[in-house]
Amino acid sequence: MWHRIRRGCVRVILLSMMAASAVAMPEPRAAVEATVHRLQAEWEVVLYTLPEDQHADRFQVLLDQIGQLERQHPGLAAPKALKAMVLCTYAGTRIGLGALDMVQTARELLQAAITLDPAVLEGSAYITLGNLYQRLPGWPVSFGDDALARQYFESALKLFPEAMDTNYFYGNFLLGQGDYERARDYLQKADRVVLTEQASVADRQLKQQIGNALQAAETRHPLQDDFFSRLLPDWGPGSR
Predict the structure, then answer these.
(1) Is the peptide bond before 140 cis (omega within 30 degrees of 0)?
(2) How far apart are CA 191 and CA 208, in angstroms?
(3) Is the residue at 210 inside a domain?
(4) How far apart are CA 99 and CA 50, in angstroms?
(5) For residue 172, what are the CA distances in angstroms to 28, 32, 157, 211?
(6) What is the pLDDT of residues 19-74, one digit of tens each?
(7) Range of the domain at 66
(8) Residue 15 placed within a domain
(9) Model's pTM, two decimal places?
(10) Is 7 contained in some domain?
(11) b/e per residue, 51-61, with b = 16+ CB within 10 A?
(12) How many alpha carbons fall within 13 Å on the CB side of residue 136?
């Protein structure tokens, strides 16, 4: 009898250990990335469809959710990259040094994400860094730097040479540099990408913006108001 009791106790202990291991086991990478893509889609809906006076509160909710995911999975790049992207838009609802602190934190998150996975979110980390360096004021106000912006855009393009967003953003950067002929080449390549019915809200917005950028290239004028301008605070004219 004692032998049966002991075997029963051992079985209970083993089952308890298996249950504890199952609870402690981290989510598979695919599940985490699926959650990231769901939160990214929610962010795009907020950014492009809701009134601006609702943005700050909704971005804060998203940042709380993404922040929790990032803390649970510090070794994964996708939560860091998305947190940085949302943080940039949240900075756009703030004024002053607080906004600069946010984009500084976003830069650090993006750099960490790239270290873990350069291709994270289909090159979005490189694209976002490129836009930050392109659009922010330079030293001593912030870290804006056109040379580094070019490097980041080109890094994204090397990873995803056929993608609509990598071609658009590099073409738009070239517009700002006055390189209208090369800008047109990349913008036309972006324009040739055919969207599917499952295209994201951001991709549909970007597709519309490509036409404006092409017109700017044809008339040899920089694009004054573009897709990414909504992701950053308005630093005002001449901030660079």
Answers:
(1) yes
(2) 9
(3) yes
(4) 21
(5) 37, 32, 13, 11
(6) 333 333 456 889 999 999 999 999 999 999 999 999 999 999 999 999 999 999 99
(7) 29-231
(8) no
(9) 0.82
(10) no
(11) eeeebeebbee
(12) 32
